[in-house]
Amino acid sequence: MYPQASVESCQHHETSLELNTTSLQLNTTSEKLNTTSVQLNTTSGKLNTTSVQLNTTSEQLNTTSVQRNTTLFPLYTTSVQLNTTSEQLNSTGVQLNTTSMQLNTTSVQLNTSSVQLNATCVQLNTTSL
Fold first, then answer.
1. b/e for 57-92, b at 16 or more Cβ within 10 A?
2. What is the mean pLDDT of residues 27-45?
3. In degrees rounded to 5, what are phi and psi of residue 122?
4. pTM, to two decimals
5. Which of 30, 26, 32 is nearest to 118 (CA)?
6. Residue 85's pLDDT is what?
7. Are 67 and 79 in contact (CB under 8 A)?
8. CA atoms of 12 and 60, how far apart (whole Å)
9. Which end of the chain lies in a sparser environment, N or C, as judged by fewer CB atoms within 10 Å?
10. CA 5 to chain centre
């Protein structure tokens, strides 16, 4: 007789471990701030004064010549002539010109740059065993 070997069966049981991950996500929306540009323009004021010209007319005085003839002897006459020189008065023209004055104010433009705020999303992952 042969010795009988008894083989005991070993049963291996595996328990499964379940992993559950819960994700937590935080998203912040981006906020964009835009300020509109403000432009101030002042119109140019121009002052022009017209030129004033004063002219006085020339005045001329002429005296006519007077001639007298006297007889000394019947054969010889000597003539005496009186001539007055003409006098002319001319007054020069006076012209007054005032220069034009122009006032220009430059335009002022104020621009504020846009500010954009972006918050990055934060994600938290927790693993449960």
1. eeeeeeeeeeeeeeeeeeeeeeeeeeeeeeeeeeee
2. 64
3. -110, 125
4. 0.16
5. 30
6. 61
7. yes
8. 149
9. N
10. 111
Residue, of 44 and 9, whose pLDDT is higher: 44
Tokens of 47: 């002052």
Q: What is the residue extent of each domain of the chain? A: 20-128
DSSP 87-98: EEE-PPPEEE-P
**What is the three-state SS of 10-69?**
CCCCCCCCCCEEEEEEECCCCEEECCCCEEECCCCEEECCCCEEECCCCEEECCCCEEEE
Torsion of CA 51, 52, 54, 55, to 10 degrees: 40
Task: List the end-to-end C-alpha distance of the chain, in Å, as a whole number.
Answer: 56
pLDDT in tens, 81-126: 666 565 666 666 666 666 666 666 666 666 666 666 666 666 666 6
Q: Token digits for 117?
A: 């705020």
Provide the pLDDT confidence category of residue 21 given band limits of 50, 70 and 90.
low
